[in-house]
Amino acid sequence: MIDFETARRHMVDGQVRTADITDPRIVSAMLKVPRERFVPQDLAALAYVDMHLAVSPGGERRLLKPMVFAKLVQIAEIAPGDRVLDVGCATGYGAAVLALVAGQVVALEQDSRLAEAARSTLADQPNVTVVTGPLTGGWPQGGPYDAIILEGATEVEPDMFLPQMKDGGRLVCVLNGPASRGMLYVRAGNDLGGRPVFDAGAPVLPGFAKAPAFAF
What we know:
This protein is of the alpha/beta class. The mean pLDDT is 94. It is 23% helix and 27% strand.
């Protein structure tokens, strides 16, 4: 029998704290949320491993590595009363952590099976609303948002979310490319400026792959 509480503590001590996660709210949330509840039962033993963990048949959808997710949340600088859009929530692990850091969380998932799993596991989180729709469309009816988190990588600039962000709002994601980075974008008026913060790779979310270039 796996001692998940001990495994959770080892994850935080060995993967999160060592990645310069200094926000005590993030550390506390990741110590509390039982990650094993958000993965397929046959993969529960791997719930706290340092890997992007598959949560859908075929493995095309994955939970971000704990370290990558924690660093994205930290650079988003989420305040206790903030309204957050969680894009690509999958089974809801990230939304469960965000629920303990933010004021309100809108968790968006386009895969209906994953969304239903998220609704079930997040049923005891009154400040989380799980919604279903295309990830690239965001969820404008729940905005504007103080922060937006993409729980996966994008190969294109996330400009499509600018209208759903408050002025001064932050968007964080992994931008895949020749050098994949964890990115922080901030809205200033009608501009969305971004800068790289840390090195990271992640699986690309559905709809966020760059269109293949035409070759003669």
